[in-house]
Amino acid sequence: MHVKVTNIILGVSFFVLMSISEVVHYFAKKDMELSDLLKKLGLYALVGVFITLFTTL
Questions:
Q1: What single DSSP character describes residue 1?
Q2: Which of 15, 28, 54, 56 has the greatest number of CB atoms lying within 10 Å of its CB?
Q3: In the predicted model, what is the mean pLDDT of the chain?
Q4: Torsion 34-36-41-42 (CA) sign
Q5: What is the DSSP code string of 5-53?
Q6: What are phi and psi of 31, to 5 degrees?
Q7: Looking at the whole model, is its pTM more than 0.90?
Q8: What pLDDT was estimated at residue 5?
Q9: Hey, CA dihedral for 24, 5, 50, 10, is it positive or negative?
């Protein structure tokens, strides 16, 4: 049980940290479109889900 909780925390923390860094970059530099930001956030969410699922198997 502890391994699953750790892997869930790992996946969520990956998503949160990468999302924060992209949002800060988006507002600081304004060099990309909002749709590009949303694509990156979706990709990070997908990677976070894969980290969570495949490391618990």
A1: -
A2: 15
A3: 88
A4: positive
A5: HHHHHHHHHHHHHHHHHHHHHHHHH--S-HHHHHHHHHHHHHHHHHHHH
A6: -100, 10
A7: no
A8: 85
A9: positive
